[in-house]
């Protein structure tokens, strides 16, 4: 098992200027919280002036920009919060900014130039949960300290969630780790340094605990709708059950919380559930079957004889 290290903390005697590259849901939320903590906002960069101005309003500070430019080099800390799929190209585009400057300055200042000086001392951190800081290699090669800081929280864009008590998974070079830890602590979060090469597994856990829980809950709501509940009423009916399950889980752990026909080994009930789910798209029964198998795996150490009975039931209700 990898070990999770307590990362070092950075000195608090200076407040860096922050540039935000990709000021969407996460970029604006982090920017707003950092601004509220007294951090100085520099460039706020999106893909159009309209979205950049809107982002500046949400953050409460900063200089809106519709594209990357040398202005980003005025910042000490560059937070990249673009979608994961464009992180590599964003890093390359940023690194080119430094090299263009370097080329011009090399012409005027001679062969030594100050190209890498443009990035030396800068800290560049992205917010993706699934990608490591290696994606920022073009910037590391230019002399920047690179890392990633993933707030283990969901940002819908409708509200700015509090990060108090939330974990921030951080990794990267020593300077990037120090800065990331400082950001996390100032936002009230708990910094955890991830060992290299574990971000995909870490992020799979986040997806299971957030989006997949949501999919299961919404499917349950839709089942109730078909027996006559209005959608909102169905959600209101199920949420207290879900909340109590989570509260029990937090207090006494998974096994002591587990109830329902699978925990009791009542396979006749499970058979009737599967029959009832025939009226729904195939995914409902597939998810029910997969979650039952997963339940036995994680809640009953594999399940033993229950596993055999479950498989027999699933085979009968094809
Ligand atoms: N949402 C969450 O709950 C959450 C939680 C933790 C971490 N994250 C991570 O945070 C990062 C950002 O996610 P998000 O949900 O904040 O995304 P988002 O709301 O879609 O915002 C993305 C931002 O990047 C800009 N952008 C999009 N494509 C671009 C491109 N090709 N080049 C340059 N800029 C581009 C967008 O500009 P415009 O505004 O002009 O469209 C927008 O400002 C991702 O790595 C994600 O995995 C997300």
Description:
The protein has 318 residues and is of the alpha/beta class. The chain folds into two domains: 17-195, Rossmann fold (3-Layer(aba) Sandwich); 204-316. The protein is built from 13 helices and eight strands. The protein has helices at residues 25-36, 49-59, 87-109, 115-119, 137-141, 174-186, 199-226, 231-252, 254-257, 261-264, 267-276, 282-299, 305-316, and strands spanning 17-21, 40-45, 63-65, 77-80, 123-126, 145-151, 167-172, 190-193. Strands 3-2-1-4-5-6-7-8 form an eight-stranded mixed sheet. Strand 2, helix 2 and strand 3 (63-65) form a beta-alpha-beta unit. The two termini are 39 Å apart. The chain binds NADP nicotinamide-adenine-dinucleotide phosphate. NADP nicotinamide-adenine-dinucleotide phosphate binds next to helix 1 and strand 6.
Q: Report the mean per-residue pLDDT as an integer.
A: 91
Number of domains: 2
Number of H- or I-type helical stretches: 13
- Superfamily (CATH H level) name of the largest domain: NAD(P)-binding Rossmann-like Domain
CATH fold label of the largest domain: Rossmann fold
**Which class of secondary structure composition applies to the elements?**
alpha/beta
> Which percent range fits the helix content?
40-55%
